[in-house]
TrEMBL record:
Family affiliation: Belongs to the class-I aminoacyl-tRNA synthetase family.
EC number: 6.1.1.4
Residue intervals of the Methionyl/Valyl/Leucyl/Isoleucyl-tRNA synthetase anticodon-binding domain: 822-934
Keyword presence, Repeat: no
This protein's name: Leucine--tRNA ligase
HAMAP family to which the protein is assigned, alphabetical: Leu_tRNA_synth_B
């Protein structure tokens, strides 16, 4: 009876689907365990062998937990909104919903391309997903709840004093009773103070405008990354080297009215929560750096008048009160305030246009235009390029009253801190480099040294250690700590500063000028946003003819013919009916890709609930994700936003826990092994790799499917691949073969090195794929794919099969197992259980191989050994394990059979094979019980005929015996 993986795997995949073997229960007496993968974006390219790595690991763990008696929730779905589908729709004229559906379910798209379909690809690998809970973020029955969460955010504010979000109605009550003077809230800057009477006197529109300054999601003019080529705003992580990751279009910085979310309100909780979760230190550090907590002072520098003397005299004659402008700076080094020699504003800073002198206007505007083409991330990363322009304006030092020149420079970001820095060149490397670069120019004073006994002739002194402040008036002689405290006290005394804790984390822009995203449940009355009542959700994405922005620059939803809100009918109606009386315009932007992914793990808990995103009972039972596996590239995007939304929903009484994911593992990348052919320059002749030395050749990537496991190129396939290769000629090696070069690179279609799981499953079976991916190396490390190595794993499965079957059928017997049989089994039980708990999956596969080799050499076919062995293998190779279990006479799935129990007694050695030496030279070995005394060992050895032969009638002078180690006869 031969091992036939394709037949076996199809049989058991059908069985699992029909029996719903892996369906989790929301009410169970078993303890729960929630295992989650970061759900994929379903592109038309489908899966390659690198994609399932994390899924296989989570599946091994999920199956192991079922064997341990847990009620396991292991779901899967699709992050199906997003820019790639929209761009593909623009290019091909297809509807994004159609291409997304085909990418998931498989089929032929309108271009005639055959799409495998994510669902079918995943099923072939044999995952134990609870498919009854599948979610797709682009389905209205899913995003109605995303819209509902948005409404909750809109109707909430954050109380600093109590450190959590509350309903906006509670804030309105406070305003009605006592105004806003004593309210400690996270809100917009420069909110005007009003009394209770003033609040009551305001119109409804005025009240709404004030409340927008406090809401957790709000409209504001924001600096954004605008991509004209894509017609949309991009997040920082969607930009690479100043261009869009998708399409490579230029990106500029511009101001737009956008929806934003006050994630900054949760900065401290996001920071502290990292102490309570089991994540890698590198991911935690990424989030700490992104949140960027720093303690220091907020200092106000008054700007001197930048008007010409003539303008100033005219205003004085007209008795016009001159406008006073202040530059606010957050600094972590208030102790160095006397070392300030210039100030630098971000080019986008609001004050730049106000304070720039006429003489500097042209230079400043040219610089701002140039800077707008660089992303924030690019500007932050570029520490070598120094650029800036003097505004012509001066600020006043709060203590010395000396004029301080004000510059703009792109190393200062509008979105970080206040968008301004007080430059202390003697104490900061970047300020030092800037000051030296512009040394001698108008508006750049000499560097001041405010550190006693420190030489700054070659570099700044940035350390806080061993600091003694000098040339600093009342701070002279103080160390960093004391000088900081005294400087803040003096700033507060003169009303030009205050102690402050600052965070780098900015509020998250939540609008996208795209079509393929969640519609906002928002309409506008007198330009102010109103929420559509939750009972009327979902507000479904409308049909549009074009997915590009409108001719007058509106987002794609501006093309929708039916996109207005009828407040009388509570329905979406034709835009032609807008009368701003009962029918109003709807929001034209859509939500960003991270909206649907910021809460999806909760939907899995109760995926078919029509009324709530999940019931309280389901949320209380599953609580949070016990194990989350996914890519580290989401550290400061999805993982941060998810934590933010979870904390908000906890504040509002919906989420049961503060953190969504208890343990996080970031799987490494499986890299491709690219194949290269070598063309002689200026010819169509290709040289075998071992013949290229001394030749002028051009390496060209070639499809890895044209190359066998010996790196030999299939010439006929290569020549038929591209028209220009039809007439190719070849210089072969000594064996008449063309050998390609190999290089490990990212697996990519453009590198022709993609291997699909479908191909591997068809040739070797899914169990081989699963075992091989786990065998490649530690889960969290990157490792290269090599199809040639997979045959060894396939050979192992065939060897495992032969323990149970020969050509005539089942050969498992009821023989009593030997000590060696039991030792091999229990070594494996212990190793596999420990490895899975520690996520060391590669060493488990090695142990399986050792065990099967040992049992084969022991000629073991005992049921007592082989039944538990099938269970051990089951998490890794579930199809073959199910078949073995069934053939052994069991009628139910192996998936929930208890995991074998390790018994240490089977690993305890009772005998010892002693080397018996004569004058230090080993002559033979003898196996003896370990509990014998020295005297008993000596008696047995002396009577052994081999000893008598060695002694040849002599009596040894000395017999040295160390029980459990050595026996040596001397003389």
């Amino acid at each position: 009876m031969k091992y036939n993986p394709n037949e076996i795997e199809a049989k058991w995949q059908k069985y699992w689907a029909e029996k719903q073997t892996f369906a989790a229960k929301n009410n169970s007496e078993k303890p729960k365990h929630y295992v989650l993968d970061m759900f994929p974006y379903p592109s038309g390219a489908g899966l390659h062998v690198g994609h399932p790595l994390g899924y296989i690991a989570s599946d091994v763990y999920s199956r192991f937990k079922r064997h341990q008696g847990f009620n396991v929730l292991h779901p899967m779905g699709y992050d199906s909104f997003g820019l790639p589908a929209e761009q593909y729709a623009i290019q091909t004229g297809q509807r994004p919903e159609d291409t997304t559906r085909v990418n998931i379910d498989g089929g032929v798209d309108k271009e005639g391309k055959q799409i495998a379909g994510y669902r079918k690809q995943l099923d072939k690998i044999g995952f134990s997903f609870d498919w009854a809970r599948e979610v797709r973020t682009s389905n209205p029955d899913y995003y109605k709840h995303t819209q509902w969460i948005f409404i909750q955010l809109f109707n909430s504010w954050y109380c600093r004093k109590q450190g959590q979000a509350f309903d906006i109605s509670e804030l309105v009550t406070v305003f009605e009773e006592s105004g806003n003077a004593l309210v400690e809230a996270v809100c917009d800057d420069n909110v005007a103070i009003f009394t209770a009477d003033e609040w009551k006197s305001y119109s409804e529109d005025q009240k709404e405008k004030i409340l927008l300054q406090y809401r957790m999601t709000y409209l504001a003019e924001t600096e954004v990354n605008w991509c004209p080529g894509l017609g949309t705003v991009l997040a920082n992580d969607e930009i690479v080297n100043g261009v869009s990751e998708r399409g490579g279009f230029p990106v500029i910085r511009k101001k737009m009215t956008q929806w934003s979310m006050r994630i900054s309100a949760y900065a401290e909780r996001l920071l502290q929560g990292l102490n309570d979760i089991d994540w890698s230190e590198s991911i935690k550090e990424s989030q700490r750096n992104w949140i960027g907590k720093s303690v220091g002072a907020l200092v106000k520098f008054q700007v001197s008048s930048s008007k010409s003397q003539e303008d100033a005299q005219s205003e004085a004659a007209l008795n016009v009160k001159p406008e006073t402008n202040y530059i606010e700076v957050f600094t972590t080094r208030p102790d160095t305030i006397f070392g300030v020699t210039f100030m630098t504003l971000a080019p986008e800073h609001d004050l730049v246009a106000k304070i720039t002198t006429p003489e500097q206007k042209e230079a400043v505007e040219t610089y701002i235009e140039k800077t707008a083409k660089r992303s924030e991330r690019e500007r932050m990363a570029d520490v070598k390029t120094i650029s800036g322009v003097f505004t012509g304006a001066y600020a006043e030092h709060p203590f010395t009253k000396e004029p301080i020149p004000v510059w703009i420079g792109d190393y200062v970001l509008a979105g970080y801190g206040t968008g301004a820095v007080m430059a202390v060149p003697c104490g900061d490397e970047r300020d030092y480099a800037f000051a030296n670069f512009f040394k001698g120019q108008n508006g750049m004073p000499e560097i001041k040294n405010i550190f006693a006994n420190v030489d700054i002739s070659e570099a700044a002194y940035g350390s806080k250690d061993n600091v003694e402040i000098a040339n600093s008036d009342f701070l002279n002689g103080l160390n960093y700590k004391d000088a900081t405290k005294k400087a803040i006290a003096k700033l507060e005394e003169i009303g030009q500063g205050t102690g402050k804790t600052n965070y780098r984390l900015r509020d998250a822009v939540f609008s996208r000028q795209r079509y393929w995203g969640e519609p906002f449940p928002v309409y506008y009355v007198n330009g102010l946003p109103k929420m559509i009542d939750a009972q009327h959700l979902p507000i479904i994405l409308p049909e549009v003819e074009k997915y590009l922005p409108t001719e007058d620059g509106l987002p794609p939803l501006g093309n929708a013919a039916v996109w207005a809100w009828d407040t009388a009918k509570s329905a979406v109606v034709s835009t032609e009916l807008i009368d701003n009386v009962t029918i109003f315009p709807l929001e034209l932007n859509t939500m960003p890709g991270w909206a649907g992914s910021s809460w999806y793990w909760m939907r899995y808990m109760d995926a078919h609930n029509e009324n709530e995103f999940a019931s309280k009972e389901a949320l209380a039972y599953w609580e949070s994700v016990d194990l989350y596996i996914g890519g580290s590239e989401h550290a400061t995007g999805h993982l941060l936003y998810s934590r933010f939304w979870n904390k908000f929903l906890k504040d509002k009484g919906f989420a049961p826990t503060e953190e969504p994911f208890k343990k996080l593992i970031n799987q490494g990348m499986i890299l491709g092994t690219t194949a290269y052919v070598y063309r002689l320059e200026g010819t169509n002749t290709f040289v075998s790799k071992n013949k290229i030395e001394g030749q002028n050749v051009q390496p060209i990537r070639v499809d890895v499917h044209f190359v066998n496991s010996s790196d030999e190129l299939n010439i006929e396939k290569f020549k038929a691949w591209r028209e220009d290769f039809n007439t190719a000629e070849f210089i072969f090696d000594e064996n008449g073969k063309y050998i390609v070069g190999r290089e490990v690179e990212k697996m990519s279609k453009s590198y022709y090195n993609v291997v699909t799981p479908d191909d591997i499953c068809a040739e070797y079976g899914a169990d081989t794929l699963r075992l091989y991916e786990m065998f490649l190396g530690p889960l969290e490390q990157a490792k290269p794919w090599n199809t040639a190595g997979i045959s060894g794993v396939f050979g192992f499965l065939k060897k495992l099969w032969r323990l149970y079957f020969d050509d005539n059928g089942l050969i498992v017997n009821n023989d009593e197992p030997t000590k060696d049989n039991l030792k091999s089994l229990h070594k494996t039980i212990k190793k596999v259980a420990d490895d899975i708990e520690n996520f060391s999956f590669n060493t488990s596969v090695s142990q399986f191989m050792i065990c099967v080799n040992e049992l084969s050499s022991q000629n073991c076919h005992s049921r007592t050994i082989l039944e538990p062995l099938a269970i051990l293998v089951s998490p890794y190779a579930p199809h073959i394990a199910e078949e073995l279990w069934s053939q052994l006479g069991h009628t139910t799935s192996i998936s929930e059979v208890p995991f074998p129990v390790f018994e240490a007694k089977h690993l305890v050695e009772t005998n010892k094979e002693y080397p018996v030496s004569f004058n230090g030279k080993m002559r033979f070995t003898i196996e003896l019980p370990l509990d014998l005394t020295k005297e008993q060992i000596e008696e047995i050895v002396m009577k052994d005929e081999r000893t008598q032969k060695q002694l040849d009638g002599r009596t040894p002078n000395k017999v040295i015996i160390v029980p459990g180690k050595i026996i040596n006869l001397v003389g």
